Amino acid sequence: MTTQGNTRAPYEARMRRAEKLAASLPFAAEILKFYRHVAALQGDVYAELASSGSLAATGFKSPSGGTDLVARGEPDLTQILPHYRGFLALVEENGPGNLVAASKVVGGLPAESWMAALSAYWKTAGVSDQAIGAFAQFFARAVMQPCAEIAGERVVAPPQVVTRNTCPRCEGRPLLGVLRVEGDGGKRFLLCSFCLQEWEFRRILCPTCGETAEQKLPVYVAEQMPHVRVEACDTCKLYLRTIDLTEDGHAVPIVDDLAALPLTLWAQEHGYSRLQPNLLGT
Fold first, then answer.
1. What long-range pairs does 80-84 form, CB within 8 A, spacing at least 24?
2. The domain containing residue 199 runs over which residues?
3. Is-above-0.85 flag for pTM?
4. Are 15 and 75 contained in the same domain?
5. pLDDT tens-digit profile of 126-185?
6. Is residue 3 part of a domain?
7. Which of 80, 144, 157, 270 has the highest count of CB atoms within 10 angstroms of its CB?
8. Helix axes 134-153, 81-94, angle to 10 degrees
9. DSSP 27
């Protein structure tokens, strides 16, 4: 159970990986240093909610009150709201210029506005047909992500009868693909853009439109990060970034994804769009 032992462990691992990549990838150093600050504060939120046993961290709720059905019953936002100010202060002190300006605007809004933003994010994140830009959802996503992650961890995913292109725990769209070692090769998983949990997925299959023709599913790997790749689809023109742990077992998917700026540029130049943005829009 994640709530035993060091409840900050997942975020501490992300912070260590961000430090290591920042030292070896100069083009991503600024972003990764900022993310390290974000992850540290997220770790505090995660630890508090994971150890509290509160309603905010008991899992995704069905209308009937169960935790074994895929549905997003809203957590107690009054337990999360106090952390919102902390993220605003963090951004003002350490963030890039555009986020600093936004944090000052958001900081001047009433608490009711913050509550509305948190509620809207919880209900719609990762499920909208049109991806919401990373900038527009950054503050709500940063503070709500630990809560969503705990909720996902505490829900037993229903058995998969067919290959799903949305998360079996919360219906979120995938943020990443992850290849994990199995036998002499790798097994493909998708990582949810909302609750950050993984589920198994077929190797040669577009997770958006279902294309299976290998010639229509080009793959691009950047020289700087050979374990990270773009898996694109020429049918729907969307792409999924995949972290190949068979190539680098030390990778931490959501952190290595943030650093993969050359892959973003390649995808944009070739007319591909990302299904869901990561936290920092990289």
1. 80/45, 80/49, 80/56, 80/118, 80/143, 80/144, 80/147, 81/111, 81/114, 81/115, 81/118, 83/41, 83/44, 83/45, 83/143, 84/114, 84/118, 84/139, 84/143
2. 174-274
3. yes
4. yes
5. 886 656 677 889 999 999 999 999 888 887 777 776 688 999 888 899 999 999 998 777
6. no
7. 144
8. 130
9. G
